[in-house]
Amino acid sequence: MDSSAYSFTAFAGVPAVEFSFTEEDRVYPFLHTKEDTYENLHKTLRGRLPAVAQAVAQLTGQLLIRLSRDHLLPLDFGRYGDVVLRHIGNFNEFSGDLKARGLTLQWVYSARGDYIRAAEKLRKEIYSSEQSDERLMRMYNVRIMRVRSRSLPPPSGRGPVPGPGVLKLRFRCLLGVLYGRSYGVHKPARLEDPTCPFRRLRQVEFYFLSQYVSPADSPFRHIFLGQGDHTLGALLDHLRMLRSDGSKANSSGLGFQESRFRRQLALLTWTLQGAANALSGDVWNIDNNF
């Protein structure tokens, strides 16, 4: 969150990579000032700027090679089905408590099943396709990237924010620029072309970020790794209140609230179902009966 581009990338859902070189005994006082010049940076690095630039180029080159090696994006889109199952498995112990209140988690199980089926269908389509077909690979990559989430870690999972005594050089690149051939694009793509994957950048890390909370209020919108009322963890914490001291919790307003639970469950289910639908492809190609 200390990145100057964080507000843009978090709100727009643009995938980005940021890496840095740090020195514990050095401080760079010119960041975000008019004094942040080539000369001052070169001086702070004690004449090592060419060597640092070479290291940056080599690391960026490794990223480019990894992202442009294959026609198909190397993303395991099916693993989220196991992640969902691992989370909702913790809900089973509360099934009796929910049933007594006329509630059920069937919606979540149904959405998870739809996602698993969509992932398996896409995997079979890919394996039975000719990977030299660039246009077909591009279509598959678009479907994969629609559901690949932006895994924003919570604040506790981030590295330390640079402070006094730390020199931190940060370099940033948008993955939309790096993916290139991985998207199946071997020539300059026109953004107005509906098949152009860069047109989908806002959807790249879209479907596992809750669309029902504001990025300004809840910057960590990921339903698995985020923080807030929209996450699977928050739903589980709310369920645990069913077995807390009911009278004391209700009097303080911190007990189980059925209306709030229904809202959490509905929004979470819609998010999961949206990811499943995105993985299935265009609506006119889906065989499910509506």
Automatic annotation (TrEMBL):
BP terms from Gene Ontology: endocytic iron import into cell
InterPro entries, per the entry: Peptidase_M28B, TFR-like_dimer_dom_sf
GO cellular component, one term: external side of plasma membrane
Entry keywords, A to Z: Receptor
Superkingdom of the organism of origin: Eukaryota
Protein name: Transferrin receptor protein 2
Organism from which the protein derives: Cricetulus griseus (Chinese hamster)
